[in-house]
Structure formats: structure tokens, C-alpha cells
From TrEMBL:
It is an enzyme of class 3 (hydrolase). The keyword Transferase does not apply. GO terms for cellular component: Golgi membrane. It comes from Tauraco erythrolophus (Red-crested turaco). This is Glycoprotein endo-alpha-1,2-mannosidase. Keywords: Golgi apparatus, Hydrolase, Membrane, Signal-anchor, Transmembrane, Transmembrane helix. It catalyses: N-{alpha-Glc-(1->3)-alpha-Man-(1->2)-alpha-Man-(1->2)-alpha-Man-(1->3)-[alpha-Man-(1->2)-alpha-Man-(1->3)-[alpha-Man-(1->2)-alpha-Man-(1->6)]-alpha-Man-(1->6)]-beta-Man-(1->4)-beta-GlcNAc-(1->4)-beta-GlcNAc}-L-asparaginyl-[protein] + H2O = alpha-D-glucosyl-(1->3)-D-mannopyranose + N(4)-{alpha-D-Man-(1->2)-alpha-D-Man-(1->3)-[alpha-D-Man-(1->2)-alpha-D-Man-(1->3)-[alpha-D-Man-(1->2)-alpha-D-Man-(1->6)]-alpha-D-Man-(1->6)]-beta-D-Man-(1->4)-beta-D-GlaNAc-(1->4)-beta-D-GlcNAc}-L-asparaginyl-[protein] (N-glucan mannose isomer 8A1,2,3B1,2). It is a single-pass type II membrane protein. Coiled coil: none annotated. GO terms for molecular function: glycoprotein endo-alpha-1,2-mannosidase activity. It is found in: Golgi apparatus membrane. PANTHER family: ENDO-ALPHA-1,2-MANNOSIDASE, GLYCOPROTEIN ENDO-ALPHA-1,2-MANNOSIDASE.
Length: 464
């Protein structure tokens, strides 16, 4: 009996050891499999909205954390100190410590440029509403105009937009708004803010001068490792001489700021870049005075030389842009089919023209278009967002032509419904605003981040 007991005890010990070794083996196998998780597990394949929310959001945060470690751009020390200061400023007592902000923010993609407007105002910061109270614009045909309402919007419940911002009828001067915008743009993995700009003392017909805001925007952009370039609007008497003085003003005043954008050219030079809206309203001969080496007002081979990007609307504009001495073209409008330039099916031929004439082609993608809050007669140009599918189609079309830069229309052009800024459902007594449901307010930021990563990976393949 004693012998049997001893045999049974040894058998149990051996069994326990074998079981323990088996458990350790299983654990090691699972850890190994975890490290082999594919990088693209965040959104699935093929690309589509599909299952965007919770589970995939968590995976994307893990991917973004890894991307932020793998793709550090610019000065590493500056980047770390920026992230540290952002984490300190945003951390709350209830939040888990360290690295939360790094998980949320993707690395900036400096080949993703996004149009940004700082023309909004409210009574708290500006003494009155600006732009949110946009007038209803009449149709140019009086017979048509008589069929539509007149007047202007009455914020904060009634604003000049078909969507309603999560931040409400904000002021572009509000530091908390500027910081929120920078954080949103950074989370979307954009890298360059294309800031709508008028010369000092000038503004659009519904706004106030905004040049004084540029230093603040530059400072907050730098905090989030973003860069700023300028979208020069068609101000009064814009010509070769005034443009020379205004480019000189911008470079002299802002060119030394670390957030001021410079683009590395194929020759290795780092040059400022200026987008020129409605460039076609000025004849090529005037632009050539400024933009060609032999021009009477030439900016070429001077300390103020830069890359100048013209707006292409009609097909014939491509020849004018080339004759004018511009360095490239962009399409701006988020309405597929509205113009020759904004029609996706024309981008391949435009890219081919640019390649053969040493020009940059910068297609502009947008999430949709609706401006009936300020142009109630313009229903035919509305482009439904289709829960994000319209935006993804535009990105897909842009990637097909392998552009060096993609521009996004827009972060916050609320009047034309092209914004990717967070929007929320809102209902008033007279109006129900559009929203991003069934998705969350940040869905277009997430889609932008997703396509930024896809674009970055595809660019790496193009260059191989």
C-alpha cells in the first residue's frame, strides 16, 4: 500500500509539471502571434466605411501610436517636447497618466494640405457675429431670385450653414477654438494648413481683417507639429505689383517662424508655397511679370522666390497657368462635375499635362458639398456625403494619379458644407441641421487619417 501511494504521488507531480509546461507553451505561442498582427488591421480590406466605430477605433489608436514612433518627422527633440507639453495641458485628474495624447494623434503628413478659414466671429470675442450671420445670396437672374427667401441668418441657433459645428458658433480668435482645431487636424494626420489670407486691413465682403491672427495660428500649429502656408484670396487690385509686396510681407513677417511651411523641391531647395485662389481672373501677361525670370516685376531668383499654385477651373486654364509662370495647379472645389478641374475623371489628363510641363498637380478632395443655407437656389450642385463614401471615392481618384501633394477642401468652410470639422445633430424651431450620423462627429477626421496612412504607404511604393 505504501508503495502504491508513492507511485501515485510521483505521477501527480509529473502530471502537474507537464500541465504547467503546456500552459507556458500555449502562452508563448499566443504572444508570438500577437506580435505578428498585420499593420493594416485597423480598417480592414477593401477600403470602405464598413465597421468604423468601437473595435476598429481601438486598433487604430494602437496603429497610430506605432506610426508616431516609426515615422518621426522633423526634429525629434522638438517633437517630444511638444507632445509632452500638450499632454500636460490636456491631462485631467481622472485620465490615465502619460502617452494618452500620443495614442490619439497620428504623425503629421506634410503632403496632406487642408484649407482653413479663420473668418468666424461671435459677440464674446468680436463684439458681434461674423460669417455665421451670412446673408442669403440672390441668384443673378431676378426672375429666379424672386422665388427664394432673402435676408441673413441670425446666430447662434440660425447659422449660415447646413451642418452645425460641435464647437457652436465660435470665434476664430478664441484660443481654445484654435487649439481644438489644431488638435483635430493633427488627429486627421494632415500636415499643412492652407490658411485663407487677405492683406492687412482687407477682408472678404462678409468678414473682418484676420492677418493679426496669423501669429497665434502659427504658434498653435507649431505646438501640434503642423505647418502653415497661405491661400491668397482675390483681394481688390490684386496684380503683379501688389502680389510681390504681399509675398514679401508674408515671408518677412512670418517666414522665420518654425511652423512656416517650406516645400522641398526636386532640386533640393526649400521654398515657401502660395495657393492663389481665382488666379484665372488675372491675365497671364500680368502673372508673367511676377512669375517668369524675365518678368518686369519678377520674384524669381530673389529671397522671396516661392512655389505659386494656380486654381484650375476650365480646361483652357492649364495653358494660361503654364504661360503665366506658375509652378503648379490645384482644383479646390469639392463638387465632382462642377468644373473641369473638380471632375475626377479629368485628373489623369491634367496630371499628364503637368508632368510634361514640369508643373505640380494638386487635386483637391472633399467630403461633399451643400451651400443652400447661403445659396438656396443652388441645389443642383449639392453632393451628398453618402455616409463618407463620397469622400473615399475622391481620395481613391486622387491616389490613382500619384500626386506629390493632395489638398483637402476643407477643414471648416461651413457655408459650403465641405467641412471635416466635428459636427453635431441640432434641431431648432425652424430647421433641422444635417449631421454625420450614423457615425460619430469625428468620422471625417478618422477617414482623413485612414487615407493619409494609405497615401503615405503608396507613396513609398511609388518611389521604390
Amino acid at each position: 500500500w505504501i508503495l502504491n501511494y508513492d507511485i501515485m504521488a510521483r505521477f501527480r507531480r509529473r502530471t502537474c509539471i507537464i500541465l504547467l509546461l503546456f500552459i507556458l507553451f500555449i502562452c508563448s505561442i499566443m504572444m508570438a502571434l500577437k506580435t505578428l498582427r498585420p499593420d493594416r488591421a485597423g480598417f480592414g480590406d477593401p477600403f470602405g466605411l464598413g465597421l468604423l466605430p468601437e473595435l476598429q477605433q481601438r486598433t487604430v489608436l494602437l496603429d497610430n501610436k506605432q506610426n508616431s514612433l516609426n515615422r518621426v518627422q522633423g526634429d525629434a527633440v522638438t517633437r517630444v517636447s511638444n507632445l509632452h507639453s500638450m499632454a500636460v495641458n490636456t491631462m485631467k485628474a481622472s485620465m490615465p497618466p502619460v502617452n494618452k495624447l500620443e495614442e490619439e494623434l497620428s504623425s503629421p503628413n506634410y503632403n496632406f494640405h487642408i484649407f482653413y478659414y479663420s473668418w468666424f466671429g461671435n459677440p464674446q470675442f468680436d463684439g458681434k457675429y461674423i460669417h455665421w450671420n451670412h446673408p442669403l445670396l440672390p441668384h443673378w437672374d431676378p426672375k429666379i431670385a424672386n422665388n427664394y427667401p432673402k435676408g441673413r441668418h441670425n446666430p447662434p441657433e440660425d447659422i449660415g450653414a447646413n451642418f452645425y459645428p460641435e464647437l457652436g458658433s465660435y470665434s476664430s480668435k478664441d484660443p481654445t477654438v484654435i487649439e481644438a482645431h489644431m488638435k483635430q487636424m493633427r488627429s486627421a494626420s494632415t500636415g499643412v494648413i492652407v490658411l485663407s489670407w487677405y492683406p492687412p486691413g482687407m477682408a472678404d465682403e462678409n468678414g473682418e481683417p484676420t492677418d493679426d491672427l496669423v501669429p497665434v495660428i502659427l504658434d498653435y500649429a507649431h505646438k501640434y507639429s503642423l505647418k502653415v502656408t497661405f491661400h491668397i484670396e482675390p483681394y481688390k487690385d490684386r496684380d503683379d505689383r501688389s502680389m510681390y509686396h504681399n509675398v514679401k510681407y508674408i515671408i518677412d513677417k512670418y517666414g522665420g517662424h518654425p511652423a512656416f511651411y517650406r516645400h522641398k523641391t526636386s532640386t533640393g531647395r526649400f521654398l515657401p508655397m502660395f495657393y492663389v485662389y481665382d488666379s484665372y481672373v488675372t491675365i497671364p501677361e500680368i502673372w508673367a511679370n511676377l512669375l517668369t525670370v524675365s518678368g518686369s516685376q519678377t520674384i524669381r531668383n530673389t529671397p522671396y522666390d516661392a512655389l505659386f499654385i494656380a486654381l484650375l477651373v476650365e480646361e483652357r486654364h492649364k495653358h494660361d497657368i503654364h504661360r503665366s509662370g506658375f509652378d503648379g495647379m490645384y482644383t479646390y472645389f469639392a463638387t465632382n462635375g462642377f468644373s473641369y478641374g473638380s471632375s475626377h475623371h479629368n485628373w489623369a489628363s491634367l496630371k499628364a499635362f503637368c508632368d510634361s510641363n514640369n508643373l505640380m498637380f494638386i487635386p483637391s478632395v472633399g467630403p461633399g458639398y451643400i451651400d443652400t443655407s447661403i445659396r438656396p437656389w443652388n441645389n443642383h450642385n449639392t453632393r451628398n456625403r453618402v455616409n463618407g463614401k463620397y469622400y473615399e471615392t475622391a481620395f481613391s481618384a486622387a491616389l490613382l494619379v500619384r500626386p506629390e501633394i493632395i489638398s483637402i477642401t476643407s477643414f471648416n468652410e461651413w457655408h459650403e458644407g465641405t467641412q471635416i470639422e466635428k459636427a453635431v445633430p441640432k434641431r431648432t424651431g425652424q430647421m433641422v441641421y444635417l449631421d454625420y450620423k450614423p457615425h460619430k462627429p469625428n468620422v471625417y477626421l478618422e477617414l482623413t487619417q485612414k487615407w493619409s496612412e494609405k497615401y503615405r504607404k503608396e507613396q513609398e511604393q511609388w518611389l521604390m
